[in-house]
Design brief:
Number of strands: 2
CATH topology: Rossmann fold
Distance between the termini: 48 Å
Oligomer: single chain
Strand content: 5-15%
CATH superfamily: P-loop containing nucleotide triphosphate hydrolases
Order of helices and strands: HHHEHEH
Number of helices: 5
Shape: globular
CATH architecture: 3-Layer(aba) Sandwich
């Protein structure tokens, strides 16, 4: 498959393997400053290039700033489809799910 992004050129070998991983979840264990965020951004871009609907992707981070940053980085790298990604904080996502359940069940 032809990609708009040259993943092999842009990433080191470990990052490339994680970004291109096809089946099931991929666990990335790495220290600070090793490129985990870059790897995630490239993985999401690759998923979108493979036809995954951006609105079906959930990007969870610890801060709003990081969630926005990752979405912007992905958009700058690929295109505006990345703005449809559901990027949120862990707390924000859980709160929205609890509110949704509250509305469904009148809790």
């Amino acid at each position: 498959m032809g990609y708009r992004i040259d993943y092999k050129q842009d990433l080191n070998e470990e990052q490339y393997r994680a970004a291109m991983h096809q089946k099931g979840p991929c666990l990335v264990i790495a220290g600070a400053g090793t490129g985990k965020t870059t790897t995630l951004v490239y993985r999401v871009a690759r998923l979108i290039e493979d036809g995954v609907k951006p609105e079906s992707i959930l990007f969870l981070t610890f801060t709003r700033k990081a969630a926005i940053n990752m979405t912007v980085r992905c958009s700058n790298m690929l295109d505006e489809r990345c703005r449809l990604i559901n990027a949120n904080t862990f707390h924000g996502f859980c709160l929205s799910e609890l509110k949704h359940l509250q509305g469904l069940y009148g809790i």
